[in-house]
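Render this sequence as a predicted structure.
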Amino acid sequence: MGIFNRDYSKPGKGVDESGEGSEGAVLFFEIFIRKFWKLIQVNLLFCVVNIPAFLILFYLTGMFSNAVLGSFPNQIAGIAGLSEPDFTNPDFLIIYRSIDLGVRAVVTILFSVFWGSGPAYAAMHYVLRNYSREEHSFILSDFWDALKDNFKQSLAVFVIDIIFMFLFFYGIFFYSSRSGIISYAKYLVYCLFAFYTISHLFVYPLMVRYRLKFTQLLRNSALFAIASLPYSILVIIILAALTLGMWYVGIFVLSGTAMTSFLAIYVVAMLVLLNSVCGFIVSFNAERQIRRHLSEDANVEEKQVFEKNTEPVNPRKMY
């Protein structure tokens, strides 16, 4: 795999094919520790710029909240000490609204981590892409340049993702409510949802690195996901552990003061690190899988708008 070039004053791709050095998980943690404070800065910048997308997702994920609240109304009433739902009861309303806000927040976070959330997410991935290649990055200027350069494609991906979120949700809900053989179609929807999620591990890394048409971007993201399926599944498991796994531990494993303290710490960690850490994991894996599977005789044009960090790369075409 080679080592990364740490001399930022010297032009070059940043990779010395003839060198030897840390690889895999060792290299990942070396960069992670060295760039830890930078990851916090990137995460905070992303959270601020991405507020419009967060608000849109928070509003739209009300459908998931309604589904949860509509499925367990008596259980919610039981928590409030009631025999049946009573919206005039203040205790019931507090619990009801807390669950509503919690479900919306969790689904919004999961959407952003696993699928991304538009222009700000693309900008963050460009900075993280530089870190994963051990190339220098000026956070503010690179973030802004990447946001402008990838705005249209990333916004289109975000809109399509929202549409697919509704399609997957209603597909699962529709087929789960049916009886007979048609009910098994929900497993097909589950498989499509899983594949769509895995493909997103390469959508934004390819977007910020290469000039691809929109259809090429989606198609090649799927191809890279298939070609590196074991690594893709491993990344999904790690992301799930950092999100769903942490919530599960905080809510169902711990109790009392320990649960409250754990969840409080985790919420702070989400604000300062979650998106950049998860994004770095995705970017680090994507860079290595792209380098591994992209054939030398393929032609794809690498983006040249950020020439202050790397020298121009010979055009290649990706099919």
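Summary. Confidence is low (pLDDT under 50) at residues 1-19, 307-319. The chain has one domain: 3-50+117-293.
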